[in-house]
Write a structure and sequence with these properties.
The protein is built from two helices and no strands. By secondary structure, the protein is an all-alpha fold. The chain has one domain. Helix 1 runs antiparallel to helix 2. About 0% of the residues are buried.
Length: about 80
């Protein structure tokens, strides 16, 4: 799969770069989600297992964003 990730911008604060990366990952997961759903409509049990795992990863990304925001507040 081609990567749509942008290079790291060393001029950005670490927390902003980290948040940008979590959003890029979520965008990729959304694309994968739709590709899998369209390609495998005949095998819905397997598709739903994969889509469930993607949803769990997206939830973890949201948790990571929350942690980054919390750490950002503690950054001197």
């Amino acid at each position: 799969m081609a990567s749509h990730a942008k290079p790291i911008d060393i001029n950005k604060p670490w927390w902003l770069e980290a948040l940008d990366k979590t959003h890029q990952i979520q965008d990729e997961l959304d694309r994968v989600y739709m590709i899998i759903f369209r390609a495998n409509e005949s095998n819905l049990t397997r598709v739903f297992k994969v889509l469930d795992k993607i949803d769990k990863i997206k939830n973890e990304l949201q948790n990571l964003r929350s942690l980054i925001e919390k750490l950002r507040g503690e950054d001197p």
